[in-house]
Amino acid sequence: MFQKLWLIPAVLLVAGGIAFAATRSTPPADLDYSLSHLSKDGHYQVTLVPGIDPVPVGKMHAWLVDVTDAAGQPVDADIVIDGGMPQHGHGLPTVPAVTGKDHHGRHIVGGMRFNMPGWWVLKVEISGTAGVDTATFNLAL
Known about the structure:
Elements: H1 7-23, E1 36-38, E2 44-50, E3 61-69, E4 78-85, E5 90-91, E6 97-101, E7 107-112, E8 119-128, E9 131-140
Antiparallel strand pairs: 1-2, 2-3, 3-7, 4-5, 4-8, 6-7, 8-9
């Protein structure tokens, strides 16, 4: 029995190597990188506007989030934004938060920072008159 114990570290090493390689693969080829689309259930049109173009890596910045109903009318809604890197299994290095609204009624989200290049996903949760819905956005930095 003890003669085969060496297999345990060998299997763990191989499994770890496979997992590491999977996280470094290229993102799916069919990703939608648009920054404006309907929310998952179609209740809201959500548009993200980065405060800096191109979006920087390693620099703190803000984004604007515009929320309208499906007909394009402004919606009074609360939003929460979160995200991460699906291939790396980690979230954003910061906790973005709504800090107010601009003169067009768009939410100002401060505390955005991406700590490395690659495929990022941002998820916006909207709580408005039509209910709670989410919109998910892909970014390539």
